[in-house]
Specification:
single chain; 0% strand; 7 helices; mainly alpha
Length: 179
């Protein structure tokens, strides 16, 4: 049984969203590497999350994960980012403006996180802005590719099944020579 076309479209939209999110993370990391590794949007959001986490929860994380607490935090941020990007891709597959609006919200979070760090500089927001710009450029291209006609799963017609059933027989029968 083939998936319903709306589910297939949503799946392709989700994949496009995740890919656009990966582009954003990659560009943000690249720009941060050129400016300052601490300016990474993922790191800035992680630090902002730590600032707003209740002390009891912070202490629990340190006890439970030991020296790996920061890696767990970054991994969690990346998982949430992927889920959010997939949801934006599904929305963008319906209407591109929905996905771009969600991307704007994500950009605002990244810029706010970078701008509110204790040692923030004006250049510190550049990785988040570059990430948002890259995702805004990638998302429409990926959504167009994911939703263009012909990307839907094809269903065999009854005539196609008959032709496939006859083909092995036709291969055994020599065809007449043409003049």
């Amino acid at each position: 049984m083939r998936p319903h076309p709306d589910w297939a479209r949503a799946g392709r939209g989700a994949l496009a969203g995740v890919l656009a999110g990966a582009v954003a993370v990659g560009v943000g990391q690249l720009v941060a590497g050129l400016i300052s590794p601490g300016a990474s949007p993922v790191v800035a959001v992680g630090q902002l999350q730590i600032d707003f986490t209740p002390p009891a929860l912070k202490n629990f994380a340190i006890r439970a994960f030991g020296s790996y607490d920061k890696q767990i935090l970054v991994g969690g941020i990346l998982v949430v980012l992927a889920l959010f990007a997939a949801a934006l891709g599904v929305l963008a597959a319906r209407r591109l403006a929905y996905g771009l609006a969600g991307l704007g919200v994500f950009a605002a979070i990244g810029v706010t996180a970078a701008a509110t760090r204790p040692a923030a500089t004006p250049a510190g927001v550049l990785p988040a802005l570059a990430a948002a710009a890259a995702a805004a450029a990638a998302l429409p291209v990926l959504i167009r590719a994911a939703t263009r006609p012909g990307t839907a799963p094809r269903q065999a017609s009854p005539a196609g099944r008959v032709a496939a059933a006859v083909t092995p027989m036709a291969a055994k029968t020599p065809s007449p020579a043409r003049p």
